[in-house]
Every structure is written in C-alpha cells, then in structure tokens.
Specification:
With about 475 residues, the protein is of the alpha/beta class. About 30% of the residues lie in helices and about 15% in strands. The chain has one domain: 3-Layer(aba) Sandwich (Alkaline Phosphatase, subunit A). It is built from 14 helices and 16 strands. The strands form three sheets. It has a ten-stranded mixed beta sheet, with helices on both faces. It has a four-stranded antiparallel beta sheet with strand order 13-14-15-16, with helices on one face. Strands 3-12 form a two-stranded parallel sheet. About 50% of the residues are buried.
C-alpha cells in the first residue's frame, strides 16, 4: 500500500510538472478527452483504424471490466466511481434505475464533473447522459435541465436512430432532422471540435466527454458508410450458437439453437454495427486533429471506452447484453497522454469505477474516500506497480428492462435473473439469486463453454463466495480495495 501511494504521488507530481512546461498559453494541468461509446464490443476495434492507431500511440488495458453490463447502471458507476450497490442504480428505469432515480438520490451532486469543475476545469458533455433523460423532461419544474458540474451541455435523450432527435444545447432545445449532415455522431464531432477551438484560447484546462449513441441498436450508420463491409459476417467463435447448453443456468440452458434466419439477422446486425462505428472512429480523428492544430495534443489525455459490450450469437443468444459473459463485461479502455507508454498492454484488473478517481488525480483534486475505485495513474506511468487488486465485481438485477426501453431484449436475446459475479485474473464465478452458479476457468476455457461450478472444491467455492460477499458489502476505496485483493 505504501509503494502504491508513493507511485501515485510521483505520477501526480510528474503530471503537474510536465503540464507546467511549454508556452504560457498552455494550461498548467492536462486536458482530458473522454469518449464513452454505447455497446461497443472488443470485436469492433479491428475495424476502427484511428482507434487502432490510438492503441499504437498509448496504453491498452487488456482486463478492463464494467460494474454492470447495462447502460444506465454502468454510466452511473462511471460518473460516481461507485459500484451499483452503492449508487442504487441497477436498471435503466423504474425504482432501481434511470435518470430520475439518479437525480432524486442526489448522486449528481458528487460526480467527476462536479469534482473537475470545482478544481478549475471547463467541462463539457455531448451526446448521451443517462437512460430516461430527455431534453423536454421537467426537472424541478423546468425543461432543458442541465446537471451540476457541466459548463457545456449538448445532450440528446433519444439519439439512437441517428436522426430526428432533440438536443438540449445549454438550456436551449434544438431539433435536428434527417439530412446527412445532421447525423448525430457527426454533429457531436463538430461540437467537440468547436469546443476545443473555443476553450483553448484561455488558460483553464478542459474536460470534454463525448458519448456517441453508436453502435447501439438500431445500429444506424452514417449514410456514407452504408455500403461498407457488405459481405461481413459475425465472428464464428466456438461459443457461437453453442452446441450444448445443458450445464448452463436455467435462464439459458433450455434455449434452442439459432435458426438460419436468426443467424442471418445476427450477421446483418454485426455489419451495421461495424458501419456505425466508422463515424465514431472519424470523430476520434477529428478531435485529435483539433487538439493538434491548437497545440494541445501533447498536453491532453484521451480515454476511449464503452459502457458495456454485446453478445451476438454466442451461447445461442441474439443481440443483447446484461450477462456476465466476457462479451458483455469486458470492454476496451485505451489511453494516450503525457507520459503514457506507447504500444503498451496492461494486464491489471481494472473497472469503470476507476475512471472517476483517475480524472480527479489528473486534475490535481483529492479523491473522495467514498469512491469505490482507484486511480489508474500509477499504471499509466509505465512503472511497475505491485499489490494491485486481483478481482473485480459485476452486479446485475433482473429481469430489469421493460418495453419501450431501448435495451429491451427480444425473446432470443437473453435477460438473466439477478446475479453477482467475481471476475478474477483467471476465472469468472457467478452466483444467481436462485442459488445457481457458473464457474469458467478462462485459461482453459476462454469462450466459457464448460460450466465447472459443480467441480469446485468446497474450500475454493467458500473462498470465492467470501470474496463476493466482501465486495458486495464494500463501501469506499479502502474496503473495496481490500475486498478485491488490493494491498
């Protein structure tokens, strides 16, 4: 613990010193650009050349996981640095989730946005906020609500189709139509570039979050990308249309094999998802170009991730999420910035709850003890870090989406009952609310084909259960760090 604290201090001093060098017009602290996509899975990265170049220029976290594989709970964890059991946000709406629950619980009063803004950063959010947020929704008696912590706010409620959406532009409502130039990802890219050009005239550092709706369903690409990858098919991993589900939990084991029409639909969805992320890839490049033109690229950290992944044909499931399979919980995190090693891959167990404390430390702000995560800066320094956590927690309450929710699963997509999952460096252990279990040794079984929970020795099962219990009870970075095996 003392070594980790020392490394954190060294990195913080290096960031402050490095940012203070250069012209007097440059901000003393680094800028931060945070791109959080919607349902972007690892198998899409290979089709994004600018993102792959970002990997070459920076560090990839090869074991980065979400706290919950559903949009709103995951985004709540990102904003607060807390597990779902500490935010109370488990679903996209209703009593256990959605924007109203997040707002009414007072969670907006302490997010990374409020932390950075109070630390002197100019902050902006563009794109998606939380499920059930809409620009016209009355909040405290008025529409066009902007949460605390944001200087610039260009947010839509229903931008999933890519066109015909409404943006709340700093308390002003603006309708966008169906012309090609109004495609939502392109509009967000233009606004992001304009923001960078405007705020870099001053001395304050900035934090820019851009949250595209792509590649979320209905997977609408920009018109210019509609003819790309027309012969592409979804990856046929060993888990695709899995031949034997007899060892799986009851919510899954009785599913029939995917029929040819369903497989064709899955292939079409994959093609459209690949097409849809082309505009996201271009957005990344446009932001980099703007930073370079303003002389700010070398003083800016760029974080690229997703709120969750997506299964698409694996384990006989059509397009969906919410499970604890790797397809859903394991997402990209790619980082570039001052002092970040190039072409580096880090195997440390990391989580979406770590983003808030990372941003706070970059801003030179104290990290609240109530935050469950840990700053990633010691890992991004390129130095050897010992005593890092050895497991992460994934939580799910379900079935938890209703008709009208953009994440409502079709009959073949899967909607598991409530579970809690422990993802260690080697395995995934899942406990369901009905007492069923899953255990996958990912060294021997990377595609999670064989549920070996029944073969666990009592001592091993007991140890896994105890770790899950401790993680699900933890509050704040001290107890959550210890429960996850951190030293």
């Amino acid at each position: 613990m003392r070594i980790l604290a020392l490394l954190t201090l060294v990195v913080s001093l290096a960031v402050a010193a490095g940012a203070g060098q250069g012209s007097s017009a440059s901000p003393r602290r680094p800028n931060i650009v945070f791109i959080v996509t919607d349902d972007l899975s690892w198998n899409l990265v290979q089709y994004m050349p600018r993102l792959r170049q970002l990997q070459a220029e920076g560090t990839t976290f090869s074991r980065f996981f979400v706290s919950n594989s559903l949009c709103c709970p995951s985004r709540a964890s990102i904003l607060t640095g807390k597990f779902p059991h500490n935010t109370g946000i488990y679903t996209n709406g209703g009593r256990e989730g959605g924007f109203a629950r997040f707002h009414d619980s007072g969670l907006e009063r302490e997010t990374f946005a409020t932390r950075l803004r109070s630390s002197g950063y100019t902050t902006a959010l563009m794109g998606k906020y939380l499920n059930e947020y809409t620009p016209t929704r009355l909040v405290d008696g008025a529409p066009a609500y902007v949460p605390p912590g944001w200087d610039e706010w260009d947010v839509a409620g229903k931008g999933y189709t890519g066109f015909d959406y409404l943006l709340n532009e700093n308390h002003r409502l603006r309708n966008y139509g169906h012309s090609p130039e109004q495609y939502v990802t392109d509009v967000l890219a233009a606004k992001g570039v304009e923001f960078i050009n405007r705020v870099t005239n001053g001395r304050k550092p900035f934090f820019l979050e851009i949250a595209p709706f792509a590649p979320h369903s209905p997977y609408t690409p920009a018109p210019r990308h509609e003819t790309m990858y027309l012969n592409l098919k979804a990856p046929r991993t060993p888990a695709f249309n899995e031949s034997d589900l007899s060892d799986k939990p009851s919510w899954l084991k009785h599913r029939r094999s995917l029929r040819s029409l369903e497989v064709s639909t899955i292939d079409e969805v994959f093609r459209k998802r690949v097409q849809a992320v082309q505009s996201v890839d271009e957005l990344l490049g446009q932001l980099q170009d703007a930073l370079r033109a303003r002389g700010q690229l070398s003083n800016t950290y760029i974080f690229f991730t997703s709120d969750n992944g997506l299964h698409l044909g694996e384990h006989r499931l059509a397009a969906g999420k919410q499970t604890a399979f790797e397809t859903d919980i394991h997402v990209p995190l790619i980082v570039t910035g001052p002092g970040v090693p190039r072409r580096s891959k880090l195997p440390h167990m990391t989580s979406t709850i770590d983003l808030y404390p990372t941003f706070a430390q970059l801003a030179g702000s104290p990290i609240p003890l109530a935050v469950d995560g840990r700053s990633l800066l010691p890992l991004l320094s390129g130095q050897t870090v010992t005593g890092w956590r050895t497991a992460v927690l994934v939580e799910h309450h379900g079935p938890d989406v209703t008709r009208g929710d953009p994440d409502f699963p079709g009959p073949s997509a899967g909607n598991p009952i409530s579970y809690r999952a422990l993802r260690t460096e080697r395995a995934t252990y899942i406990q369901y609310s009905n007492g069923e279990e899953e255990y996958y040794d990912l060294k021997k079984d990377p595609y999670q084909l064989t549920n070996s929970a029944k073969l666990l020795k009592p001592l091993v099962r007991g140890a896994l259960h105890s770790r899950l219990e401790a993680l699900e009870r933890c509050v704040g970075n001290v107890s959550c760090w210890a429960a996850a095996g951190g030293q």
